[in-house]
Amino acid sequence: MKKLFSTIVAMAMLLMSCTVFAATDISGDVIQVEGVGSLANTSASTGYRAAKADAMRNALEEVQGVRIDSETTVQDSITASDVIRTRVNGMIKGAKIVRKYQDRDGYHVIMEIPVRGTHSLAAAVIPERTTAPVPLKPAITYTPQVPVSSGPYTGLIVDCTGLGLDTAMAPGVFTADNKLVYGQDNFTYEQVISKGYVGYAKSLTSGVSRAGSNPLIVRAQGVKGYVNPIVSSADAARIMVENQQTGFLDKCNVVFVR
Question: Prior bond to 127 cis, omega within 30?
């Protein structure tokens, strides 16, 4: 099995290098893959082993497509570091099998890889911080143009619909002049790994419970580096001012709507 998995790793990396990059969606905080073994196998156990090997190959392809931030993918990290390659391989080998079944097409194995948590993709590829987190304080000195009147707010929703936003493990919210409003620099390594500081949803009304019952909603003006929403100067200032009232950013109550 060890030799087989090494072959799978090499083949998958070659395949990824020869195809157009497509980011893997991690909005569900878990990557689910399926493997299939042929019915021509001599026994069910052999068939399921073949299905598991196929699932591991598919898992490697999927995790390599995950964006870490605007500049780095898991594939980049695996290529650059033998340590990260070993961690990712070990994580895939230990992936949880959530379902096994047989039908007329073959033996099927479905496995899941967690994006967050102690034994997760994030833990395998995100480097530990060597500096202290930057406090979430109004470092942005813009004067809000919109009266603050409907708080206190429980969270933040950044509406990025139609802008082609990709998911990532470590995105950030920026202004057009590249000032960081909210991102990885504001949190400890443990916070980034355990919960992540951003959730994703497909609409303003569904899957946004992370932002609480009265979220502040701002419309992104664009996307930087595939994964980072850009907000106006006025919205940036309002986000920072409102956060001083309830600390919703500190609680990671943030959702990007794609």
Answer: no
